[in-house]
Design brief:
Blueprint: E1 4-7, H1 8-11, E2 21-24, E3 28-29, H2 33-60, H3 66-73, E4 78-82, E5 85-88, H4 97-115, E6 122-127, H5 136-159, E7 168-177, E8 182-191, H6 194-212, E9 219-222, H7 226-238, E10 257-258, H8 259-269, E11 275-278, E12 293-296, E13 300-305, E14 310-313, H9 327-335, E15 337-338
Parallel strand pairs: 10-15
Antiparallel strand pairs: 1-2, 2-12, 3-5, 4-5, 4-13, 6-8, 6-9, 7-8, 7-11, 13-14
Length: 342
């Protein structure tokens, strides 16, 4: 459950002062100011991208996704801090860099204990010929359908005693080529061993045929660092928009963010599971689904001010993170977002 905030006066709970509130959830630790600054950077990127996507949806007259973009824009606009932690509502949308960071941590905690027990984990890439915007939705549907067919074939083959048992995790990603204006939906997998990867790749090539898929474009490589590979696979599954890499050293400022292409990808992937497992179940845990609930009287409320690029205390002019965006990030978000239809 998301972290939520309720005032007792609003909820009708009695025997408390009007200055008490109920906090639901674990909250995010901000005792280290770096955490608050990181959240502020994600908020800047997310709001800028959300507004760009709203503009793209208007231009393309695709209105059903606009509310989702606005929900992302307002994610964590109002927060409460108490005892060194932040509490607030999350949008849980794919393009939200705040929510995707939380989702990534949750998936790592779920899957790493299982994958690290596999004998010889391999990283697999399944890809096919790039396509145009016109057929992107159909291509993504076919890509997912192809993997389902492969999974069923290999599972039945194993049941008949003629093949190995396959299992793994898979995530769907889609790249955009701004030069050719094409899209490339593809899968990234982690499987227990090389043989599993070989079996899946072989079926993939047979299904797509030589016209659409070539052997040299597929990958089946050993995971020398299971944790790092898992993070990469989960990143693909939980973050369609990748944040600008501010640590990357480059002489020029030629990077662009293709909001039009991202809009097309989001709409084409709508309704599909981006990250999933196959061939195994996660171990049952004894954790309860109930979130922590606490009543506090020592708290501060904050509201996000886009002009300040920070959260401001509702009772003073104090800002929460004191984050200042690097010039390169400011330039990227202000000058390098391409909203044209791709």
């Amino acid at each position: 459950m998301d972290d939520e905030i309720y005032t007792l006066a609003q909820s009708g709970t009695k025997n408390y002062t009007e200055h008490s509130i109920i906090l639901i959830g674990k909250g995010s630790d901000i005792t280290n100011n770096k955490t608050a600054k990181s959240k502020a950077q994600k908020k800047i990127i997310t709001q800028t991208m959300a507004l760009s996507l709203v503009d793209v949806s208007k231009e393309n007259r695709v209105y059903e996704c606009r509310q989702s973009y606005w929900n992302t824009y307002h994610c964590q606009n109002r927060i409460t801090t108490s005892d060194g932690k932040i509490y607030g509502r999350y949008c849980k949308n794919r393009i939200c860099t705040i929510c995707s960071n939380i989702r990534k941590a949750e998936l790592i905690n779920k899957y790493y204990p299982v994958i690290k027990t596999w004998e010889d984990p391999h990283f697999v890439t399944l890809t096919a010929k790039a396509c145009s915007k016109r057929v992107l939705k159909r291509r993504i549907d076919k890509t997912i359908e192809a993997f389902k067919i492969i999974n069923q074939r290999l599972r039945k083959r194993h049941q008949r005693g003629k093949g190995i048992k396959i299992m793994g995790i898979r995530s769907l990603e889609c790249n955009y080529n701004p030069v050719k204006k094409t899209y490339n939906p593809h899968f990234h997998l982690i499987v227990p061993n090389k043989e599993t990867g070989e079996a899946i790749v072989e079926e993939w090539l047979n299904l797509w045929t030589y016209k659409y898929a070539r052997k040299y474009a597929q990958k089946n490589e050993r995971c020398y660092s299971v944790e790092s590979t898992l993070i990469e696979v989960i990143k693909y599954g939980s973050k369609i928009f990748t944040e600008p890499d501010l640590k990357q050293k480059s002489k020029g400022l030629g990077t662009k963010i293709y909001a039009g292409a991202l809009h097309n990808i989001l709409n084409a992937m709508k309704g599909h599971r981006i990250f999933d497992r196959f061939g195994f179940n996660l171990p049952k845990t004894s954790e309860t689904s109930l979130s922590k609930v606490q009543t506090v009287i020592d708290f501060d409320k904050w509201v996000y001010i886009p002009k300040l690029r920070d959260w401001r205390n509702v009772n003073s002019d104090e800002v929460l993170s004191k984050y200042v965006a690097p010039p390169k990030l400011q330039y990227l978000l202000e000058q390098c977002i391409d909203k044209e239809a791709c």
